[in-house]
Specification:
The complex is a heterodimer. Helix content of chain A is 0%, strand content 55%. In chain A, a hairpin with a 4-residue loop joins strand 7 and strand 8. Chain A is globular. Chain B is mostly beta strands. In chain B, strands 2, 4, 5, 6, 9, 10 and 11 form a seven-stranded mixed sheet that branches. In chain B, strands 1-3-8-7 form a four-stranded antiparallel sheet, with no helix packed on it. The relative contact order of chain B is 0.33. Classes of the chains: A mainly beta, B mainly beta.
Chain lengths: 113, 115
């Protein structure tokens, strides 16, 4: 079936650098996308979302980019900090949520001092 | 802290047994969602309840069932447990019935270990 997937399982960046986490999705009917952060021993924490009628959305230190042509989603984290270490999941929704959220496998972001 | 609470935090049981996981949504949220997180399957949507009624169903086994009570808390019942049911079980809640921008906030999870 269609699913959301991630390109890289692990991403290592230097503290202070910008991080870019990528996600590919295959369901062309998806109309809503969300990024979640999951720290060890905790539940997923909402970071930022974007609707399919937008191609960019910015939050505090984070930006989500959506390219519907190639079905690609990315999360950019500016000036990465040690507290950003976590697993990042992209999730998508279609059909008004009739199937819940479909999550990707996750990318583990590691911050090097 | 998301405002979603789950109990117990950890649960260890044997194969063939039955357990109940409990979730209290954020104040004011009407929807409750259950997800299973395992190493091989990742985070998978199980079921959603909205204001006491089943709203959406995902990859939930027939051995599993859920309900949402009048006070909006929810319980996930897992029966005839198998080793493969060992996983983290998350509850999430949202304000409305779901759909785009109805953000789901996750609880801390219950770690189930089946021996």
């Amino acid at each position: 079936g269609e699913s959301v997937g991630l390109h890289l399982p692990t991403l290592s960046v230097q503290e202070g650098d910008n991080s870019i986490i990528n996600c590919a999705y295959s369901n062309s009917a998806s109309d809503y996308f969300i990024w979640y952060k999951q720290e060890s021993g905790k539940g997923p924490q909402f970071i930022i979302d974007i609707r399919s009628n937008m191609d960019k959305r910015q939050g505090q230190r984070v930006t989500v980019l959506l390219n519907k042509t190639v079905k690609h989603l990315s999360l950019q984290i500016a000036a990465t900090q040690p507290g950003d270490s976590a697993v990042y999941f992209c999730a998508e929704m279609s059909g008004g949520g009739a199937d819940g959220l479909t999550f990707g496998k996750g990318t583990h972001l590691i911050i090097q001092p | 802290d998301s405002g979603v609470t789950q109990t117990p935090k950890h649960l260890i049981t044997a194969t063939g047994q039955r357990v109940t996981l409990r979730c209290s949504p954020r104040s004011g949220d009407l929807s409750v969602y259950w997800y299973q997180q395992s190493l091989d399957q990742g985070l998978q949507f199980l079921i959603q309840y909205y204001n006491g009624e089943e709203r959406a169903k995902g990859n939930i086994l027939e051995r599993f069932s859920a309900q949402q009570f009048p006070d909006l808390h929810s319980e996930l019942n897992l029966s005839s447990l198998e080793l493969g049911d060992s996983a983290l079980y998350f509850c999430a809640s949202s304000v409305m019935a779901g759909g785009s921008t109805d953000t789901q906030y996750f609880g801390p999870g219950t770690r189930l270990t089946v021996l």
